[in-house]
Specification:
By secondary structure, the protein is mainly α. The chain has eight helices and no strands. Helices cover about 70% and strands about 0% of the residues. Helix 5 runs antiparallel to helix 6 and helix 7 packs antiparallel against helix 8.
Length: about 150
């Protein structure tokens, strides 16, 4: 994942004085820390920090709840089904539920090469079933021959 610089995310941050680790003087640090922009940014960071520190299980539960609500509103969305299956497989590690949602995604969008290849990968990783995984990989190539 590429991280953008803070100035790219918020152009107002360009107005803050630039301080390097080697040349920062005490007076420059004092000026920066007393600026209204710094105080606003720091108070926002302090308020959001507890949410960042939540255990993984809570974050997984929040994401699960979000996907369940979205799927309740859009039960046949191939993209939503695929993304939820990928989350279950790669992040949460719930293989059985991931397989169920990959299957639902394939039924909802049988021409989606990406979901076919993700499902093939799941089959290969969990069952080491070469023939079955290869079948899904071949279907993925046929469904989307130009999608690398």
């Amino acid at each position: 994942m590429l991280l953008k610089s803070s100035s790219a995310l918020n152009p107002k941050l360009n107005a803050l004085p630039c301080i390097s680790r080697t040349s920062a003087s005490h007076s420059n640090l004092h000026k920066l820390s007393s600026s209204p922009m710094f105080k606003t940014a720091f108070s926002h960071f302090r308020l959001t920090l507890p949410h960042i520190r939540k255990p993984k299980e809570n974050c997984f539960k929040i994401t699960d709840t979000y996907y369940e609500e979205m799927l309740e509103a859009n039960p046949g969305s191939p993209l939503l089904l695929r993304n939820y299956a990928k989350f279950l497989h790669e992040v949460k590690g719930d293989i059985d539920k991931a397989e169920e949602f990959y299957a639902r995604a394939i039924l909802a969008g049988p021409a989606d090469g990406e979901v076919l290849s993700l499902y093939a990968q799941l089959i290969w990783e969990t069952n080491k079933d070469v023939d079955r995984a290869q079948t899904y990989f071949e279907q993925a190539v046929q469904a989307a021959p130009h999608d690398w």
